[in-house]
Amino acid sequence: MSVFDHPEFDNHEHVAFYHDDEAGLSAIIAVHNTNLGPALGGCRMWPYINSSEALTDVLRLSKGMTYKAAMANLELGGGKSVIIGDPRKAKTPEMMRAMGRFVDSLGGKYFTAEDSGIAVSDLATMAEESDYIAGVKAHYHYNGEEADGNPAPSTAYGVFVGVRASVEYGLKSDLKGVKVAIQGMGHVGYRLAKHLHEAGAQLFVTDIYPEGVDKAVAELGATAVAPEEIYGLDVDVIAPCAMGASINDETLPAIKAKVIAGAANNQLAREEMGELLRERGILYAPDYVINAGGVIDIFHQRKESSSNEAMREHIEQIGTTLKAIYSRAEEEATATNRIANTMAEERFTAKG
Ligand code: NAD
């Protein structure tokens, strides 16, 4: 299998493969760029069909983390790890400990954290073997909620800050009475709804399961809508907080909202959707910029001299960063997602 000729290879600094037969572990770590600091990126466990599919994922995701860390004003680079296997069937404590040893073997060049298929409890097992495991000792809180290492509360707060900044920039308004439609009432979506409700926004919510929606209707006075209705609603903001590619050729024509700002990763089905949004006068908050609250939280968890206030202030910079992206995009008549990429590259290559 070729790494250097791989279509997703982008001058990655370090790609390591690891196999531990006894522990049943086959894993890959990719470190994309460490110009700004050691690489941070979650560990994903997934039933990849083969190692080639796993390599594609780890190369792509580690690069994304470099951009995300740079735009979150973090002294961190981008990395990612993948374990080949079904997390519901193949995961064992021995495998997690072996993964901890693999992370440790890079000597601090790469820190891992949570991602799909890996829980905080798995990270705790990895941490028995390595100091380079992040996301296991959160001690920050929002709305009285105790933190357990799960970054969703910080992600939600960052998205809230980002929605507020986007509304200020695009609609010249605060959040009072602004109509926001949230797609997905999961870990992030529900918490975002709560922040927005407290700021006076009017909420429309949807999910493919009823629990979160019913709770938002009962506790936050939200209006429930069917999943397919969300795009065409007469609202000011759409906040995608469910799956990727929700902004695509089918959904775009229906959108009436003037702002798209939410937590989901890879919201645009393809990069060019950013330009189509710009042409339609829709302000798009680049996903990896607005959803960086969780990564910022993980960074502060590891920082000796940090505090709840320092972390919140750092997360609040997401608003300032988005406004800088919006004004440069306007000046250069370019899509916001492209401007975000350019700004990230300027930051992480300048340090090289
Ligand atoms: P989650 O799984 O808790 O919530 C997602 C919700 O979306 C679920 O309730 C699910 O039922 C719903 N959903 C799925 N398909 C849907 C559809 N077609 N229409 C409406 N609802 C649908 O996940 P989460 O942790 O809340 O994350 C939400 C998004 O934000 C994901 O894309 C995730 O990758 C991204 N994200 C999360 C974090 C974090 O800290 N949790 C950080 C960065 C990015």
Automatic annotation (TrEMBL):
InterPro entries: Aminoacid_DH-like_N_sf (IPR046346), Glu/Leu/Phe/Val/Trp_DH (IPR006095), Glu/Leu/Phe/Val/Trp_DH_C (IPR006096), Glu/Leu/Phe/Val/Trp_DH_dimer (IPR006097), Glu/Leu/Phe/Val_DH_AS (IPR033524), Glu/Phe/Leu/Val/Trp_DH_bac/arc (IPR016211), NAD(P)-bd_dom_sf (IPR036291). The keyword NAD applies. Keywords: NAD, Oxidoreductase. It comes from the Bacteria. Gene3D superfamilies: Leucine Dehydrogenase, chain A, domain 1, NAD(P)-binding Rossmann-like Domain. The keyword Flavoprotein does not apply. Pfam families: ELFV_dehydrog, ELFV_dehydrog_N. Residues 149-352 form the Glutamate/phenylalanine/leucine/valine/L-tryptophan dehydrogenase C-terminal domain. PANTHER family: LEUCINE DEHYDROGENASE, VALINE DEHYDROGENASE. Catalyzes the reversible oxidative deamination of glutamate to alpha-ketoglutarate and ammonia. Belongs to the Glu/Leu/Phe/Val dehydrogenases family. This is Amino acid dehydrogenase. It comes from Alteromonas salexigens.
